[in-house]
UniProtKB/TrEMBL annotation:
Listed PANTHER family: METHYL-ACCEPTING CHEMOTAXIS PROTEIN CTPL (PTHR32089:SF119), METHYL-ACCEPTING CHEMOTAXIS PROTEIN MCPB (PTHR32089)
Protein name (record): Chemotaxis protein
Domain of life of the source: Bacteria
Gene Ontology annotations of biological process type: chemotaxis; signal transduction
Organism of origin: Pseudomonas songnenensis
GO cellular component: plasma membrane
Amino acid sequence: DQQGVAAKQVVDQSIRQIHELVGELRGSGESLEGLQQDVKGIVGVLDVIRAIAEQTNLLALNAAIEAARAGEAGRGFAVVADEVRALASRTQQSTGEIQGMIDRLQNATSHTVGTMLRAGEKGESTRNHANQAGESLDAISALIGTINSMNAQIAAAAEEQTAVAEEINRSVHHIADAVDGVASDAAQGAQTARELNGLAEQLQRLVGQFRI
């Protein structure tokens, strides 16, 4: 019974730990899903930056064309337009690199989310199995309690039957003693009857002697 109680405590503790683990997995999965949403937001911002860079590059190209038409007077403006185009090009290159990193991050987070979801499902299944094991252990403990109660009842009945058997044994001894007494009295009565019969015969002989 004590072993059953100890086993029940171990199972209960395991169930609590599994519940905590499942909760942590769900929380981590939700955090990663939130991170995915943030990454999608960053991708949107990058798209805007990329569009601005492309537009800036186009405007700088148009400005360079107009500066070339202006000749010597537009040379300074052409230099500025070239710098703007270079800046737009570097911006596009940087956004491309950032896009690559974000793609890798998205793939990693997607894989991690999938792994954690599967782990959460396994944890949920394990929790269900642990709950079933706890319920089975409760049923076994209840059955053991019932068996112990029945054993106690059987032991009490056995003690009562032993007492009854002892009482019957004593009664049998009393009856045997009484039977022995009756037999002894009967033997004594038979002896007395034989003696009386002998006396009767003697009396008959005596009476016969006095007849005329």
